Structure formats: structure tokens, C-alpha cells
Amino acid sequence: MQTGSDSGLHFSLNALQKENEHLKNRIHWLESVLHHVPAMIYSYDNSTKSVTWCNDRLAETVGFSADEVMGMGMEFFRHIMHPEDFKLAAVAQQSFINNKAQFGGLARIRKKGEIDYRWLLGLEVPFTHDKNGRVVEIICAFLDLTNTIDTDAQLSEALSAIMRRQNETLFNKLTPREKDVLGMAVKGLNNKEIAQSLNLSRYTVETHRKNIRLKLKVRNTSELVAIARKIGFE
Length: 234
Known about the structure:
Layout: H1 4-36, E1 40-45, E2 50-54, H2 56-62, H3 66-71, H4 74-80, H5 87-97, E3 103-109, E4 118-129, E5 135-144, H6 152-171, H7 176-186, H8 191-198, H9 202-216, H10 221-231
Antiparallel strand pairs: 1-2, 1-5, 3-4, 4-5
Helix pairs in contact: 6-10, 7-9, 7-10, 8-9
């Protein structure tokens, strides 16, 4: 004979089973979304730079299986990234050690066995932390810019806006005197003319221009003037 207590227990078990089934279906649905979303998504251990999980789109794009991706450690990034961009992996790693809230940028990768690289736009954010608040895992999403074939004009404008903003950020690192020197250089004045106008020695002007080139990451005066005009500095 089933007691009221037994009946209540049976009802509770049924409710738990239904809830468990609902959660399983929900997890399956979420996993399906992650694998079909039009972006490459993965998580990695920030100390070892080894991938801890990736969606199917990433595996398909790079030509490695998910197990291969997770088993290669840092070598995975060395295999797929352009040599000039590989250093970004270490830069991102250090950024999160320094508690940066996010890391974003452009990088080139290629599929295993292919020669040509494709441009990706990526954004990384902290995912898990240890008990001391240090970042353990990072989650990253990459979009393939070569797929933006329907909005070429917008892509060009977006990249120009990004570069303009980056240049403005660099420009803001200049001292007021360096900005004065840059302004005159853009107008075509040489070091002697700038020195006379600002009542400085020619050596001081040369030092300012050297510091300006270093801060704006340019190699010569032509590049310096070009980047200043892109910012809108007249």
C-alpha cells in the first residue's frame, strides 16, 4: 500500500526527472547554437595559452579537429597565425595578467594545407578566475572579415574609423610642445624654421620630432605628416 509520503516522494522524483530532462535539452540546444553561430569561438588557459574548448566553426576554419586544437597548446596558434601576428598571442596573454578587461584586434590566419591568409576580427574577455581573482580562462570570438562581401563600402569606412581612432589615441600621448612641433611639420616647416618660430634650439626640435615618431610609430617625416593629416591635424 502506497502512503502519502511515498506518493509525495514519487511526485518529487518525477518532477526532478522532468527538470533534468529539460536542462539536458537546454544544454544540447545551447551547444548547437555555439557550434552553428557564424563566428569562431573558443576558450583557452591564459597561463599555457592552450585551448580548452572550441566550437565546430573554428575547427572547420583552421582544418584541425577539436581534439587536435585542444592538444596542441601554444603551437596551435603558431600553426595558424601569420608570423607577424603570432606575437599578439603573447601580448593578449600579458594583458590579462595585467587585469585588462578585454583585448581586441585584427590578425591573419590560414587553414591547414592552404597558402593564403584571411583576416579575422577578434575580441577576448576573461571567463574564469582563481580564488585570488587572477584570470584563468579567456573566452574569444573571431569573425572572418573576408565574409563581409555584402558590405564592402561599410567595411572600408569601418576600418578607416578604427585607424583614425587608434591614431587619435596615439596623438593624445604627445606633449603640448610635441603637438606644436608636429603642427608646424605638417605645414611643411623644417627643423630650423620650427626652432626659430618656437624659440628653441634646432637640437631640441630634432629630439621632439624623434619622440613624436616613436610615439606615433612611424619611421620618417612622410609617414608622420600622413598620419597627422588622417587625424585631421592641420
